[in-house]
Each structure stands twice: as structure tokens, then as C-alpha cells.
Batch of 2 targets.
Target 1
Amino acid sequence: MTSALSNPLRLGLRQERVIPPQCLIIFGASGDLTHRKLIPALFELYLQRRIPSEFAIVGCARRPWTDKEFKEKMKAKLVDQISGNEKEWENFANYLFYESVDLQQNEHVVRLAKRLNEIDKLQATHGNKTFYLSVSPNFYGSGCKALKDAGLIDDPKKSRVVIEKPFGRDYSSAKKLNRIVQSCADESQIYRIDHYLGKETVQNILVMRFANTIFEPIWNRNYISNVQITSSETVGVEDRAGYYESSGALRDMLQNHLTQMLAVTAMEPPGKFEPEAIRNEKAKVLQASKLADEIEPWNCCIRGQYTEGGNSLKRLKGYRDEDGVNLNSTTETYIATKVFIDNWRWQGVPFYLRTGKRLPKRLGEIVLTFKDVPVHLFESTIINPSPNQLILRIQPNEGATFKFEVKSPGSGMKARPVEMEFSYDESFGEPSDEGYVRLLADAMLSDPTLFTRSDEVEAAWKLYTPLIELMENSPWKLPIHKYESMTWGPPESDQLLSQDNIFWRRP
Amino acid sequence: MKPQLTLQSPLELPHQEISNYLNQLWISEDEDNSGANTFTLMIWQPAWLEQYLVQLGLIDGPIIGTLSPEIIKVAKNLILEKGISRTTSINSQELLTFLKGGIKNKDYEDFRGQFFESSISTLNPRRLITLAPTLNKESEIKTFVSAYCPLSDNNMSQPICGDLVVIRGDSNSINEKGLKIINELSIKDLPSWLWWNGSLDESPEIFDFFTKHGTRLIIDTANGSPKRCLEILNQSINLNKDINDLNWVRLKSWRESLAMIFDPPSRRAVLDHITEIDIDISGSNPLQALFLISWISDKLDWGFAKIDKDEEFIKIEFKRNNGEKIVTSINSLPLGNPSIHSGQVIGLRLISKISEVQKNNTCVILGCESVECMRLEAGGMADMQLIEQVVPNTFSSSESDVSKLLGSSRGNTSPLFENAIKIAVQIFNSLDKYL
């Protein structure tokens, strides 16, 4: 009988691009990201038969592991994914190698280069190399230099460097890091990863906008009154206090993930669906973006920090009580800000961006609220007719909803809102790949479309520079507002919108 | 896509000198410019229809080798005006036989192999070898050679160049003399493809030469007798040789549209209760429809049971694992408009019965145009839950289909196609007794 889970007619129809022979070198292989995201993504690619037989994954970290130990550790971490695919894992594990490397030590990198040569011959990877820097951001620059000095990234056609976020701490450090990285490799070799861009639903924004006739004519200041971009997490800081204390919500989420969603939502149509054409448009829109009040930025930004909360069954700690967090920490776990885009399309349309930890729901969404109708001809079943809204759900329950008014049944002529739904689950019935699956494959295929270019990263930092300066030089002007865990952030963030007579959508 | 031209006029050289000349061509002071590191594409390019039309003065020369809109228009008009069956495809033997009558051994300019679509040239084939058989009897072959550097929109520091070779003569001379230089022209370490851009019934000895040399094949089973085409396909998969069929490639929008209908999980149950499938084709070549039905039966795990043939239809019966019967039929429809490829699918109707109550059953209709959908709706289909979709049969040139194959695959036979071939062969062998 046909499984309700898969469409038998769909099997094998999708023609995915096959990754060319390749050696993927992961620096920071003993870290969290490697076993949580990277190796699972690579194994998924293997299960999808997109990994060529001429392939190798070389884990690199300071720990003195052997190839065998690396394989065993990865296997232990991927138990759930391997379950039912044991034979496939055994074959996949043949691609795994390990080399103990400290990127700061020249002799280590020289030894690595020699090992990579041996692996290249053994696995016939044709000298193609992708280096993945999953290390502390402090080592991005020196890591690239070390690779350059060892001659490992000399050939721009055969080598690439993938760099994790955060790329810099502010505009000037990002600029400096770009200079260092670009002195080691050509920009075409550098893949700055933002896994939000790997999400099917974020890419779908481009398709929805540019493959349909109906959206683009109304996707502008004439029809849209405001845009809200939300990314909320239910989890707290967990075991990442060390990193989070020095970053906070602005650097961890706002500057990259939310700003990339803003760029994709607001960019102009590219002339062609080609990497540089798309990245040009994204960079342009980010360069045209500015805080709603650059002179007094505290008027357009609210910072918050979660406090104790939850319910009687499960009490949740406040941020300052979390392990590894300073008792007097002023790191924001919530940030909301208002941005304008100075161009013909968006002049005067506020974009509200918010992100936070320990909010009631885990979700990502973009809400475009349309302008009110010029005349209200009909009474509404509620107080006022609701404006039309297009809600693009990034996660979970991926899809889109369009809210519009219809006649409420009955003898009168009252209007009421209804929703038109598109759900990935209901339409396709198959889970979409994790962002890392798509992005790792793209990097190895030398396709930079979904990676951020240097000017995009710099523009994104520049946008928030007034806030960062304020946070560092006069933090009292941008105070931390407390909010109870599992609530939608501090009440002050509601005021950010209510002064414009707008309200956050309650998802 | 417009045809690309070579930068220099092809040089005519004795065939004995070609290989040496090409070797010299790539010895350059600039070490980086030793030609594209891609693949060799060999094309059997008879362009018989074009040759006949030029010979008869029905179109202007020179012969280029691509199926231009002008050729299509003139050929369709000929079929309509000269009383040939209207369903005849412009690539059919019937039309060529008709044209053969008025032919004279006239000379004409022949630029085959010197013009090729930019969709192919932008893939930077390292070497393009065109086998250009002539209508005129020419006991000697003529060989031409040229370098080419396609210009691209990308800002490449240096163009990636290749070379092209044209081997021209009649089929016999190509077979006897032309093939001898093919081996010398092969480039070690680069994959080579043969695109057989003609009927699979012609020049079997030349075709066999390539199959024996491990070349990746691109054929078009709409062009040739179904028996010969299936033999070639079957042989290739039995010998583990890579083969791609443009007739299967053209089915893509039908396969995708049908799969799309069943993407929503709420519709999956329909697949378990299919009782009938009707496939309408234009013309008489049943292969494309056979591939479609074979693909469906493979994916839904049906076993072939029996076959029956009438003048206008072929009925194929399958059985599900639980013994339930599925009756499928391939119907050849007489159309008022000559087709380009013979036997293209123009409609599909799938009926799934879960109940005796008609309105609880489902009917899926895919048609290449609304009229076809309406035709398939007849017979009370609208009483069921009807899912309809138009699948436009837009004409894409063979060059563009070939470039998609070259650009997206490593040449391996698609596993979906391989499975469909196995079932199609099984069905056809049973059908053979009717032919």
C-alpha cells in the first residue's frame, strides 16, 4: 500500500545537483556545530545520494583524536539519524578522517597540508577543497592566513572557505576581517554562511515574489503599511552563556538572520537569477536601510532580558541566574527595532524586527500588513475591518497565510476576516532539508547565491552601528527591560509600535 | 538561443591530417589556454528534411542542421497540402519518402557542424564532431576543422575554447572512411557523448560503432521504429551503457504534473485504488506513452498482466499486489495538425475507484490543452471528484533538450528511465506478436 508519508510518483523525480569530487575540511570538528549540524547535513546528503564516491571529510581540531575516534564520536552523536541507516553510516564513515591541528601553529598546518595531499590521492578528490571554519570568530582572520601561507587556498577554482557567523562584532571589525580574508583568498572563494538563507521558506520568499504576477505590483509603499519580522525562541541561553554574554540578541540574531530576511523581503527583483545579481540587490537594499531614528536611536530600539517565569510545574530561571552568566549582566536576550528603507519602493514603510529568547513560541515569520481600504463601506463583525495581511511562516509549520475580509453569513452585510492557507506539509507532505544541507551542498558546488557577500555583511553591521555605539558608550540610554520568561518580551516593545498605532502580531 | 558562429571559417583538410592539425592547434605559448576541460560531443546530423527542402527549392539554403521554424512551417504545409495523413510527424519517413520523388543531385551550401545553438556552446564542449551525411552520393568524405571560443555573459578573464570537426560525405563513405578518424579524435580522460539526431532505423552500422566505443548516447525514440528503439534501449541497459532519450526527456512535464497532483498527503490514498488509465497520443508511435505507463506501474508496484491491440488503441492490463486489476489504454488520436515528434502524449486520464458511489471516486485529467481535458471529461467523469490540469506541450528544440542533459547529468541512464525501459520491453515483447 502507498505510504501516507511519501509520494511514490515523486521518488527520483527531483534532479538535485551532484557535488563534484571534493574534500571538506572542518576546523572545529570537536565542537558542537560539527556533530549537531554539519555531519548530520553531510550524512543527509549522502542518504540523498548527492555525495560522490570521490569524497572525504577531514575533521580538524586541537584534540588528539584518531580517524577511528572521530568516526566513533560522530556515530555516538548521530544515533537517531543513523537508526535504520546503519549500513549507509558504515559506508559514509569511510569518508571520515581526522587530523589534530592548531591553526595558530605553522607546523600543524604544514602537516595538515601533507595529510590532505595523501587523502586527495586516496579518495581521488581532484584537489578540490572546501575549508569550513567552525572555530571561534577570533580565529577567522588568522585561520585564513594560515591556510593561505600553507598554499591551501591558492587555486580559486579548486578551493573555498566557508566562514560561520558572526562575521565581526561591529562595522569596523567586519571591515577589517573582510580585508584580512580578502587578502588571503578571492571574494569568489569566500562563503559567509547564514543558515537562515538555507531555509526553504526564506528562499520561497524570492519565488513567491518573483514567480507570481500578483504580489510584486503591491509589494511597495503604495499598498503596504508596515512589515514585521519575528524570530522567537522558547529556549534560554542553555550552555552557550560564554558566547552569548559577549554577543547578545543583536549580534547573535538581529544583525544576521533577521537582517537577511529583511533583505530578501525588501530587495528589488534581480535581472537574472544569478548569484551576483541577487547579492547586488540584497546589498543595495541593506545599504539603503537605516534605523528609524539615527540621531536618537533609543527611540527606535527596545532591549530586554528574560527573568524567572514559566508555570508552577516548570519554573524557568532568569537569564542572570543561568550558569556562566554574570549576575549583573546587561546582555540583551530580546531586541526589537524599527528600520526604514530609503528607496522608492519602501520610503516611509516601517520594518519592525524583533527577536528574543524564552518567548512563548519558537517561530520565524514575516508579516506584511497592507494599508487600510480608503472607505469602510461595510460594518465589521469586530470593531474595525482588519487590514489584509500576508504572513510568511519561516518556521515551524512552514507556509503562508493571506488574511482578507469576506461577508459574514447572514442577512446583513457585515465583513469579517478569514484566512487563505498554504502549508508546506499539506501541499508537499515532505519535510524540507535543514538549512545546512542546502548550504553545504551549495558551497561545495561553488554556488554563492545563498551566502552573504562582504558588502552585505558590512551594510548589515553599519545599519546597527548607532545602536552598538550606544550600547557600548552610553548603555543607560538603551536600558535593559526585564520580561518574564515565556511572555512576548518587555511591554516597552509594544510601545515601540503602538506609538505608530500598530501592534505586534500575536502568532 | 541563437546559433553561434566560429571565429574563423572552417578549414578543409584531408582527413588524414585532421588529428595532427588539432594536436598542433592546442600547443600554445600560453599554457593556461589548452582548451576546455569538458567533453567531446559527436553529432549524427543527417538533417534529411532540410536537405530535401533545400534541394527542392522549398526553403533557401544553406543547410544548417537545426530544425528552424521555417522548416517546421514548410513541412507542415506540405503534409496538409499534399494529402499525406494529417497526423504525420514532420520527422517521419512518410514525408521523406514523399519528398524523395522530386529530388535532383543538386549542389548546395552545407554549414552543418559550423553552426550550433548557444545553449550547447555555452557548455564549452572541448570538441564537437559532426557527422553530416549527404543526400548526394559522395564516395569521398570531406573534413573541416576550426577552433571556436564562445562568448559568454560572465566576466571570465579568458574565453574557454574548443574545436570542431565536420565529417561530410554520404552515409557509406562516412561509415567506411569517416569513422576511422573518430578514434584518433577522441580526447583521453574526457567523456564523450554521441547525439544521434536522426532516425534510429538508419545507418545501424554507424550507430553500432559508437555503442561499441563506450560513448554516452543521446537518442530520440520518437524517431525510429518502436521495435528498433526498444532494442537499442534494452541492449544499452543490459550492457550497462549510459543512454539518454529525448522522448523520455520530453515526458518530464507529464511526470512532474502527475506527481504534483499527489504531493498533498490527503490525495495519496487515490493511488491505491486506480482502476483505469487512458493515455492519448498524437500519431502512432506508442513509445512515449509506453514509457509513461511503465513509469507509473513501476512506481506503484504493479505487475504487467496482459496486452491487447486494436487499430486505434493498445490495452495493457496490470495487477496490483493484492490482485486488483488496472486497465490502461494508449489511444492514438487523429489530429488535424501535423506534429513535430511522433507519438507525443497529449492527454492522460486516471480513474481511482474507492466506492460504488460515483461521486466518491476520483478522476485525474491532464491534457495538453483545454480541449483535450474536455474530451477526457466525457463519459460522466465530472460526476467524480475531478482534478484537472493543463500540461502545455510547448516545443523545445532538441538542441535545448540536449544541452539540459549535458549540463545536468553525468550521462548515466536515469534510474527511473531504466526501470521504465525494462517494463516497456516486457510489454512490447507481448505486443510484438500483434505487429
Note: The CA atoms of residues 307 and 430 of chain B lie 7 Å apart.
Target 2
Amino acid sequence: MAGLQHPFQCLRYVNRQSAGQSDILIATAGRDLYSYDASSGQRLDVWPQPVDANAEDKSSDAAPASESQAPPEKRRKLSSTSEEQKDAKSESKPKDSNKEASNSWTNIPLVTVAHGKYVVIMTSEDKCVRVLSLDNEGKLQQLSARTMPKKLSALTLTPDENNILTGDKFGDVYTFQLIPSGEYVKVQAPAKSYEPSATNLTVHTKRNLESLEQQMRQAALSKTNQAERVVLNFEHQLIIGHVSLLTELISVTRPADNTAGKRNYILTADRDEHIRVSRGVPQAHVIEQFCFGHTSFVSSLCVPSFEPKVLISGGGDNYLLVWDWLENQILQKVQLPGSEGETTVRGIWDVSLAPTADNAEPVKAIFVALEGSSQLLCYTLESDNTITHHHTLQLSGNVLELVGIDSRGSILVAVDTLRQSDSTSAWKSSSQPPLESFRLSSGKWIPADDSMVIKINSEGTSSLPTAIEQKEQKELNDSMYNLGNLRKRGDYDE
Amino acid sequence: MATQKIPAKRMKREEYRRNVQAQQESTDAVIKMPQKKFFRQRAHANPFSDHRLEYPLSPAHMDWSSHYPAFVDPDTSKTNLSGGRKLTKEVEVVDIGCGFGGLMVGLAPVLPDTLMVGMEIRTSVLEYLSSRIHALRSQQQRLKNKAANPSSTEPQDASTQPEGTESTAPAPSNDDEIGTEKIFPGNFENITAIRSNTMKFLPNFFGHHQLSKIFICFPDPHFKARKHKARIVSESLNSEYAYVLRPGGLLYTITDVEEYHHWVLRHFLHGEQPEGAAPAPSSKDLFERVSEEELALDPCVRVMKYETEESKKVTRNKGNKYVAVFRRKADPEWPA
């Protein structure tokens, strides 16, 4: 495996056994989305298709790599092309859309899977939410592409998996249908000529009056010249807003208990230390609670599937908080390694494994990774809803992503293939395998010999060009390790 | 600019403010009303920037004891999560963007038993209001003492000042010193001012359903469409106001900008729907408009319309005032 390869950024395990099909592993690396057969590790599809149609999996280093050499086309504003793109999509011409879609992003930081047959991704630079179908053979085909007004920091689904929920850098949470139904007819506001909202009754100073006069003149001149910006050109609803950068968004269902029926909630976190508990759609405008306890930004929220009353949160503080989140009650403060102001939580994952021959008890594991750290902290959730640290796993590179595979009783960990262990900037000279696998053996997580992982690693991901400039390196580093930017600096303006 | 010599105006301003500070710290001096001209500040602040803000970790950590010394619970064992003394009652009225504090000062005697706080993001303006409240309280105290012992001079000032020169407030020389000769109920002990960015940190100060009234008076209109996202009224912020406001509580708005008034109405009330269609669920479900008849009986509306600093300015300039008050409805039932 010569040269450097992109690490896996997102992993999702798609359990399809109930539907009588084999499980699929979905992964993103660089600008590509992969699907693998979860039992053999056989690569089933890559999206977008490499430009060279003959390119087999093995020769993957040629095609996508050359593409990624070109600087990404960064589109800040919604251009008319995105509209055209959308129109093209709705006519469902998958081949065209695949071609069109190429070359406008460098990574896919957000992925989720709906109903086991739709993959929802956000491609980063073009801020596009794309829904792809995942067929029985694991083939990926784009169904729709919807451009958001701001880059997303979180992407999830409503509990029924029929609607997408997005959280963006501007603090807004939108919801829209997974599969757009029918044509979206934008309610056209009657064309109204521009009129300054200030009048000589509300502004008085000489300067303000002058500028008001100017505005009036301008308004008279450009009666028709009002180019309306195309924002969110599809049916959507703005349901929650923070005046802050939204960092995380999760959707939680609390099962019925003796006080209330089954209830849905949306938990949102922001850069200003807040965790907000809102009701689920359609009542997301009702805020039920705030969870106060962090003194730095919050970047990770985890409500374990096996204990929906509990929330584990982390971010820029060197501790985790374990909550009874509906009551704003801190159950436990868990110290993390590292000093205040340096430790950043990259991810918190819950993994539940059914009892196996090795482990009589069902496993309720919580894993925590710190930003730019090659260690994986392993905890278990106890019956009193606190977590206990068991041990720490050392990996071959920085931990980027984790997914539990209940059917095999194991976890898959994506490690950084580009940067040296415990560094977010110093590069390796050659890549290591992007995936590691562990299984639980008498209470300890030990490396597992998994033929699937060996197969995936042997094929690797798309390669980077052999000569890569410092500037591009930095861009790649910044897109992979961006949580540090959330920290508040000391230099404020008054 | 910092290396240049300090302009004379700023020198004067800084000297004045130091004196005000010194006056407040000494116990025996008679506290004069601060003068607004030394505290002017640009009328806009960026609500999206971090600023150097102090805010409590949570409402349970907020130490109000220094703000309302007259309402501190005598039981010293009662403390909040940050160790401060508790109050005998909760704060329940907030003026968002209180500016120079005309509303707070006007409302203090109207609701003498209600704790009220003005929140303002601009430091100088806040400093003025804090000095003003401090001065008002001490003046009330002196007037009260005088009323209690009409024959003797004030016990505190007797040694230093003969009565009638300094202590009976000097002839009012400007707007700020007028109208405080009389003893007011509550002695202004029930109002205070805090620097905050409520768009970000309102829930850090107030718990679920804690407030009975929120005032939004003459908010920054942010005329440009590009700046509308910085407006203090929006559907998502209204959700937060609903969180801190108790059902039945009132949210008062007043503006002199007609377009902003329509903006307010549009963001608190459902517009006309095409026939048969139910309005999309939103924070508008949580508010209803209060009728004109009811407002005519509400003394708070009068204070808001005529006693805030900005409303006086609008009156002087013969501008219009648009009032809209909304009542917090109960939360909807959970969907079955």
C-alpha cells in the first residue's frame, strides 16, 4: 500500500437481516462514499463513480486522486447551478447527476441511514444534503440534492425516519422530507418594490437623513432590479434556532412510562455551552429544558439506545457530564485526561452487544475519543446510570469514528491514516490501514482478527496525490480537526 | 489610535466616571445623579460576537443578592449554587435592551413589590443605569430619613453638611435630576441592571416559566434586510421567551418603526391562511395578542409609552409609537 490514503471519516452499519438481506457497512473517505458487504468486506459500490468508467476497485488510486488535485470549488452563495442541479435530479437521471456532482467537494463529514435503504449525506463545500438509494446489491444512486443556506454541523432523522433534521453553523435547525413529495411550488410573495423601513420620523441625525434620502433615490431607480436570492428551494421548516453555532443535534424517543406516553425530543448543543431539550416535531418550538453544566462549547451528545433517560455530553471541557437530561440533573462528572483548555471530545458512542459465549451479560459500552488522540477510552454504563472507566485502547492512529456491530459482537474504529498519532498536523510518510476491529473478551476489548476488516483495509480508500502542498495539507487537517476553532479566544470586541 | 493622546472629551468622561465611582464607594458623601452625556455609546452592538460577558452557569447559580440588598433572605443558611445569599422572592420582570433605564425607573414605583431587571449589552449605558439606581436608592433613603425626623438633620450627613445646601438635592439642572424629590413606594430597591446578551444567555438567568413580564422597548430596528437576523424578535427567539415566561405572562413590545411593528406582529401571530389550511406549527402557537381595552387599563403600557428614554425622544420628534402586547398561552398538549 504505497502512498497516502484518505482515512474513513464516517462509518454506519446497516442492519438488514430482518429484511432477509446481508448487512452493509457505509463509509466515507475523502470525497467518496463507499458501501461494503459487512460479512465479507467486499466493496459493493463507490459514489460518485470514478470518472474513468473502466477503473476497477484496485486501480482506484488513479481516478479520484487526480480529481482531488484540483482545488475544491467553494460556493458560498447559492448559485443558479444548484437550482438546475436540483431540477435535473428530480427528473431522476442518476447518471447525469453523478457526473454533475463531481468535483465540488472534498469530504463528506455527515452521514445517516434511513429505513436501511436510503443513505443521507452532506457534502461539505457545496452544503448539499444528498439522499441516495442503497439497493439490495449495495449500489448507491443519488435521488435528490438539496442545498442548504449554511454548512451543516449535524444531520439526523426524525424517529419515523421519514424526515431529515439538520443543524447548521448559524444555529438553525431545519426539517424536510427524506423523499421530496411532488413538486415544490415556492409561494411567491407579491412583487413589492423596495421601500426603506426607516422614515424621517425614526431617523433624525443629518447623516442618517442623508442616507435615507439616498435609499429613497435608489429605490426609485431600481424598482425591478430585485434579484431574489434562492434559498432553500424545496419544502422545509425552520423549527429551532440558537443564536450561536450549533454543534450537535440528536433525536431521542423516550418510551412510555407510568407518567407519560411515548414522547419524542430533539436535543441540540451549541458553542455557548448550552444543551437544549425541545419537543420533537411538530412541537419543536416548545423548549422543555436546558442542561447547564459545561463551561466550554459542547460538541458531542450521546443518549444511549439502551438507556434513553441518560445523556452523556462532552466538548471543550476536560470532563464529560452524565445527565438525567429531562430534569437538568447532573448524575456524574467524569474527568478526562489532559488539562482544561486543551482536551476536546471528538466523539461519544454507545454500543450494545447481546450476550455471547464470551460474555454472559449484555454489553452496555460507551466509547469516548478525544480530538487528535490515538487513545480510545472505554466505559460501561452501570445500573445506577453512571459510567465506569474500564480501560483505554491504544490505536495505530488518531481515533476518528467508531461503530458497533452487534451481530458480530465487535466494534470498528476508523483511525487517521494521514497524520501521526496524537498530532493534528504532522503527517505520516505512508498510510496505515484505516480500520481496526476489537471484540470483548472476558471484560476487555481486544484486537479482533476480522476477515472483513482485512479485506477492507487491503483495498484501502482513494489515494492522495504523491506530491501534496503544505497549503492543501493544512486544508485537509482543518477539515478533519475543526473542533478547536469552537473555543472562545480572549480577544473580544466591545 | 491608542497611542495618540487621549481626546479631551474622553479625558473628561473618564474623570467624571472615576468621580462617580469614588462617590459610590464612600459612605457619607451625597450621591448625585449621574449625567447621561458622560455615558453615551454607539447605539448598536453585535449580538453574534462573544464580547466579554459574565453570565451565571445556570439560573440556580445566579447571585442576585448584591443587586437587591433589600430583598436578601435574612436566613443566612439559604444560599444558591454559587454560594450567594438567596432572595425572599424571585425576579420576574425583565426589560430586554433597557438602555438608560427609563422603563425600569418608571416601573419601580408602579410594581414596588416585584423584582425587575434591565438587561443591556452596552457597557457604558449599563454603567450609567447602575449609578442612577444607586443614586436613586440613596436619595430615597435620605428623603425618608428626613421625613422621619423632620426636626433634626440627617444623621449621616449632619456632621459634614449643613442641611439645605447639598443634601436636599441641588436645583435640577438637567433632565436626569428631575422628579425624584418625592418618596416613591419601593425606594427603587426592586430594580437593577445587568450586562448581558439576552439573545444568547437569557436562559442562564431565568428558569422555566419564571417571568411574568418581558419588555422589548424600541429595539434596534436593524433596518437593512441583511441585518434582520440580528433582530431581537424572531420565531426562534420567541421560543426562548416562551420558555422563561409563565403561561398568562405578558410580553410587551413598542417601536417607532412601522415596518418593525409589522415584523413583530408577523413573528408572534399566525397570518391569514389559505382556506382550509391549518397554520404550520411554530412558536406563534404559544402567544396571543392582548386587546386594546385591556391595554388601556395596564399602567405598564403607559410607562412604556411615555417614560422610557426613547419614547420621550420619539415624542419630542413627533414620531409614531406602535404597541403590541402578547400573552403567553399554555403549552400545547403532547401529541398522542
Note: The longest strand of chain A covers residues 246-254.
